[in-house]
Amino acid sequence: MARRGFSSCIFEDPNKMAAFLVQKWRTIADNAIARKGFFAAAHWGQTTPAVFYRYLAALKDSFPWDKTHIFLLTNAFCLSATETAIWG
Questions:
Q1: Is-contact 11 20, C-beta < 8 A?
Q2: What's the chain's average pLDDT?
Q3: Disulfide check for 17: which of 4, 11, 33, 85 has CB 3.0–4.6 Å away?
């Protein structure tokens, strides 16, 4: 079910998913750079996006990395509700 321009995709394997994501990444990055002069993205770390990151790294000099800002996110430093109650 699509909502507000979003749709779901099911891929046969992680490599096909990563290839698709890199194509989308490239389109979005090119549009952002043309509009704002830079591209910024935030991603969760750990092992989930590892295949995607390998595909991004393979772009090497064919991608405008000098105009790209990637922020890695983690919940490692987020306190649970219980911990917040205890530690304030």
A1: yes
A2: 83
A3: 11
Contact 45, 73 (CB under 8 A): yes
How many Cβ atoms from other residues are within 10 Å of residue 29's Cβ? 20
Does some domain include residue 45? yes
Question: Which pLDDT does position 85 carry in this prediction?
Answer: 52
Using the predicted structure, report yes or no on whether residue 1 has a pLDDT greater than 50: no
Q: Which domain holds residue 77?
A: 14-19+33-57+67-88
What domain count does the chain have? 1
